[in-house]
Amino acid sequence: MAVWSYIYAVWSPIVWIIALIVLAVIALYVRSRGQKNYKKGTRQTDIFISGIQVPPAEQRHVQAHNIYWGFFSALKGFYNAIMRPHTGIINDYILWLVVIMAIAVLVIVTVS
Amino acid sequence: MEHLNIHSPILIVALPLFAAFLIPLISRAGNKVRGSFTIALLSFVAFLVGILAVNIYTAGTRVYTLGASVPELAIPEGYIVPVRIIFQVDGISIFMGIIATVVMLAAIIYSLQFLKDQTGQDRFYSLLMLLYVGVMGMVFTGDMFNLFVFLEIASIAGAALAAYRTNMADAIEGGFKYIVISAIGGLLVLFAIGILYSQYNLLNIAALAHYMEYGTLDMIVLALLAIAFVMKLAGVPLHMWAPDTYTVAPAGTTPMILVASYTSMYALYRVTFTLYGGHIDTTAIGWVLIIVGVLSMLIGVMMAVYQTDIKRVMAYHAVSQGGYMLLGVGVGLAVLNDPAALASYGRDAITGGIFHIINHVFYKALLFMTAEAIFFRIGTRDLNKMGGLARNMKWTTVLFAIGALAISGIPPFNGFASKLLIYETVMRFNPILSVIAMFVSLVTLASFAKVFYSAFTGPEMPAYKEVREVPKGMIIGMGILAVCIILFGVFPGLVVDTIVAPATDALINQGAYINSVMGAAP
After folding, report:
1. By residue range, what is the domain housing residue B406?
2. In a domain, B317, yes or no
3. Which pTM does this prediction carry?
4. What is the spatial distance between Cα B102 and Cα B110, in angstroms, rounded to a whole number?
5. What is the total count of domains within chain B?
6. How far B125 CA lies from chain A's nearest CA (Å)?
7. Cβ(B441)–Cβ(B422) under 8 Å?
8. The complex's ipTM?
9. What is the C-alpha separation between B356 and B223, in angstroms, rounded?
10. Nearest-Cα residue of chain B relative to residue A90
């Protein structure tokens, strides 16, 4: 069976490759319609925020710990609970192992 | 050529083992000589893996007995059980072997540039070879004790490699945690093997499976082995060491340590499907795997999205993605004794879980390498301090995007193919599990969108104005994995039919594994 004809569910490699080529052509076409006559490094490429002074780069970029703030805030209780076992202390990790082993042996002895 | 084919199982393990001890000597001739020797040897071993794979896919399970007059003679004359060290390589073994070999090649090529200015490189490459030997030995071995021996080799080499950057305190800590976990896991495995040996006077897996009686002691052995291997593969709730270790290991070693973890997953499957297959309550054990898988998926991804250390994000995602593999194979195991369900979706669920192993290793290795590429250039893993790196590190950006889209299950990358298989089959078993899997994929995408935004997009930071792209060797190492990701994504049917389906058949067909050894009885 030829590699090209390997269909996987509704998945055909040929269809995917054609789709990717079409998307690439569309993307290149849209890019080619852009403004070509501009000078880099001049006011033409400066950031414009309604005329107000542009803050320095470090202040414009949202930091990682602020991203999804609402999600983490809503799930604060959940995160407090799952952070607690992740102490970073190896003794605690081994304690988890001992507890799981004890539960497993109890279940086995009870079942058998 | 015929001799190479006959002796390929032992050569694949012996040559890197020999090279591991030769590398410190060769290093005296210079870094370039060592690098060339390592690449040449690994390329030859990859060739041997290739011819062994072709042999197994055409002729079936290969048995290689050390010290026998003919390698296929598992049981000596006058004996009724195998007594020698046996390598037994079937579809799932060679599948794991292919993964380990490809990742090892990419890791070596990447490390040649990444560690160019570091000291102790001779020890690094020796230990990496030993890690490879441990992994290949584990997947090729046909007896329990050698499984333990190779597990220990892989664990010790992995711990030393995790702690390679001795100038960093967290690297030493990560290596220490790994060796403690591995030592305790190894001891549990050894204790379990001791119990099996005391009962049956046997160590060979096929022979043990043949004579298994499944009493209370055997149940305890199963629990010990399962717990030890779940801990080694970083399944929840025994996963907490994984982010600490994966984060600090150098990028060339993290993929191989990951492969070592999934080799423990292979060992878990070998124990449940082959050693205990036909005796255990597959529904109950299947559900245990499913629950561990679902917990790993959820806890892993929710912890990952919270992190601000780029490598810790990926380490928690490794825990999460391991859950997908356990979920797929768990569903297959749960319906193993229901022929209709097995034929309808169970077999495909196992295929999805196994396919996800190779896909995950490729894109996770790529993601770890891109994270280290960033660390290589800017000296920090803190996402809060990054920004605008896409301007100067274009190749790293594109390769990261490929890895991120693949792990999120976006077509046409490889992650989509295996995740779709898992969603569809698990949906037919229990729709809620499938919904959880899809939710985890969504949060995975959100997590990588956060990382991509924080690290690569945004304004050019003054501190990173002079940052350049990483050296070509590192790009090539990452590129190999990216090409595999794209090819596996565009031609998933070819991959499944060629290397994944034989692995699924090997797991399901316990009888064939046993007969390969016990069927040779005089």
Report:
1. 281-490
2. yes
3. 0.91
4. 12
5. 1
6. 28
7. no
8. 0.86
9. 25
10. B177
